[in-house]
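$ run holo --ligand "adenosine-5'-diphosphate" --emit tokens
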Amino acid sequence: MIIYQPDAMAGVTSITPPPGKSRRESLVIQGRSWRTISRFADVGPYTFLIQVAVDQTEYRELITGLAWILILSIPLAGLLAAAAGYWMSGRALYPIHQITEATNSIDGPSLSRRLPLLGTNDELDRLSATINRMLSRIATSYERIAQFTADASHELRTPVALIRSNAELLLMEPGSSPGMLRGLADILSESTYMTRLIGDLLTLARSGNEDASIPMELLELNESVRGILDRARAQAMLRNIKLEYLPQDQVVPLLGNQAMVERILMILIDNAVRYTSPGGRIWIETWVTAEHCGFAVHDTGIGIAQSHHEHIFERFFRVDSARTPRDGGSGLGLSIAKSLVEIHKGTIQLESEIGEGARFEIAFARADIVHGVTTEHQLTH
Ligand code: ADP
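-- output --
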């Protein structure tokens, strides 16, 4: 028999606790949460069951709400923290990235460039200043070496020319013995080789620091190739090699230096002639695409092994001397060609396999694309 029950507890079922102990229970009755505590109490001969209940519905709703907020906000906060961390580390590393980019872009011809100093006087600014000082020291040594090579080559030119002309004169003298003639012919051939070597060294020494002062003009590549074709044909004919020219129908405009472009072509043709056996074939073609133009020199010669491709443009590199006998080559031709191509901001590429001939391709940016030059009037015939 219930002696007293508040209205609020009307639906709460009674719970029987163990004798002498309290019993706590959580109940959900008609959608409301209750926390109850029940205990038997002996009063004289009577035993009463005392049950107290607290309505925790709102408290539970609050806890559930908080739990959902936590479940959703923890991953969101994690994502936000990761994004903020990424952004902040990117900002912190940006100056290092800039220093790396700038340092990587500095090479031989651009040794005068320096890393920008922000004036913050922090570690990174001090690092940039240190790298700049190191670059200045390297540039000074580089200039000294180039200057020395240029001076030495220049000074050697006159005595070598004198030796050559004297040898030529003596060869023409009547009455020389066969031994003397042989000796003079050797002196002549060696001094011719030295003249060429000295000329190559001078070109290389100058090519590094004259970029800004080289006069550039509007050229038409088909015309430039035609300009040297007679000389090239004569050279090829001497070795019984067929030389063909496959020009582009289109105008091939290039802003460049005529003498240098011809030198590049001559180096490639010289090599093609030198490393192709009599009866072989050499063909030169010009090409043009939407943004680039250039020419390629193919030959059916001895070819170059893949393992030599990466060294072929290095100074004084020659593929094994048995394959390339003493023929006037110094190992400087391709490195000169490469540096002249680089002055024109172009690229030089080689495709070759041993015994399969070689193909050297030169690519330049088209004058009308890079410099906005209108070519129709000046160049179409
Ligand atoms: P070199 O004056 O000796 O020809 P280069 O720098 O022009 O010097 O060429 C380097 C080497 O590359 C040459 O010694 C030769 O072995 C090889 N080479 C260059 N062009 C060709 C070619 N067209 N075919 C085969 N080998 C070549």
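-- notes --
The pocket of adenosine-5'-diphosphate is lined by residues 271-272, 275, 299, 301-304, 312, 317-319, 324, 329-335, 358 (CB under 6 Å).
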